[in-house]
Amino acid sequence: MSNMPVFTSLDNCFCSSHRSPAECIPSIRLTPSPLQTQLLCNKFNLRQCAWLKPRRPKALRTVAASSASGKPTTPETTSKPPATLAVEIADVFFKSTHSARPSSHLRTGTKITVVGVGNVGMAIAQTILTQELTTELALVDIQADKLRGEMLDLQHAAAFLPRTKIVANTDYAVTAGSDICVITAGARQRDGESRLDLVERNLHLFKSIVPQLTKYSPDTILLVVSNPVDILTYIAWKLSGLPSNRVLGSGTNLDSSRFRSLIADHLDVNAQDVQAYIIGEHGDSSVALWSSISVGGVPVLSLLEKQQIPYEKETLETIHSAVINSAYEVIRLKGYTSWAIGYSAASLVKSIVRNQKRIHPVSVLAKGFHGIEDDVFLSLPAQLGTGGVLGVANIPLTGEETQRLNMSAKAIFGVQKQLGVV
To answer: Is 370 known to be catalytic?
Structure first.
C-alpha cells in the first residue's frame, strides 16, 4: 500500500472506457493489487470501472459473439459451465437446513471457547491445541481454582505446542469474539444412568451459559457436547436465537466411529475403509444404517444377498448393542469418558474452521427430514464448513430405518414436552 498515491479527485476520468486502473489513473506508476484497486474504486465511487466487472467465461463470450454475428452456435458453446453443473449435482446430494444464515464476521485467526474444564472439556481443549486448530483458546468454568490450574498447566506446555494464546476466566467476557463455542459443562453421567435422565439436571445450567456466550459472540457457532446432547442442543438453539445451521451437537459422531471399528473387526479390514453411520438419538434409540454400509465402496449387505451368503439379523443387532453399551462400559471401568469424545469433537471443530465440507453424523434440526414433523435435534449425516451445518446428505433409508428414526424423534419430543421447552 506504500506505493499507492493519494488522490483528491478524479473529475476528468471516464472509467467506463478504461480497461485497467493504470489507464483510469495515469499517475499510477505501478500496477495496483486487486485490493488496492478495490480501495481506489470505493474511495472515488468508481463503481462502473470496466476492470472491476467480472469477466465472463470464454464459453459464454463465444456464445455472445456468435449471437451478435448471426451465425449458429454449436452445442459445445451452449452447454452449461462445469461450475453450474456442480451446483446442480450438489443440490441433489444435500438438502439445506432451516433458516440457514452464514456468519457475518471476517478476521484473521481463530478463537475457540470451551465451557467446562472437566475431563471431557480438557480432552477437547488438548486435542484442539495439538491439532493446531486455533490461535486463541478460552476456557470458562465456575470452579475458579480448577480453571486457573488447567489454564496454567496448558500454558506451561507452550514450548511443545503451536503458538496459541490461552486464557481463562469465570467471566464470560473472556469468550468475546469466539468463532466456535464448545459446551461440555453439565452433570456427570452416573453408572447405569440413561442420557435422557440427565436432562433435568442440565437444563437450568444451560440457561446460565448459552445467553452469555451469544452476548459476547453473536456470530459464533455453538457445538454442544453435554449429555443428553440432542435435547440440550435443542435447548441451546432456543436460548441462543441463532439460526439452526449454527447450532449443532456432537451427536452420533463418536457412535459412528465405534460402529465402523466394530464392523472392521468383524470383516478384518481397516476401519478407515468402512463407511457406516449411526443416526437418530445419541443413546438407546439410535438407528444403525445397515442398508448403506460399504467397505471400499462395496455395499456389504447387497453383496451378501447377491452372492447368496446368509447372515443373521441377530449378529447385526449385537454389533449395534455393543456400540450403545460401549460408553457405559468405559464409565463403569474408569468413571467417565474423555479421550474418544475429545478426538470426536476436535474432528468437528476441524471440519468447521478449515471449511473441509466433510460429512459427519451430528445432531441437527431434523424437522422436514425423513418424515420428521417436530422441532427436534437428531443426528443425521451433515456437511460441515465455516457456516456450520451446510446441508444434510440425502441418504436413502429403508422403511424400517425410517420408522425407527421417527420413533427416536417422538421419544425426544416427548421429553421436551414434559420439560416444557417445546
So the answer is: no
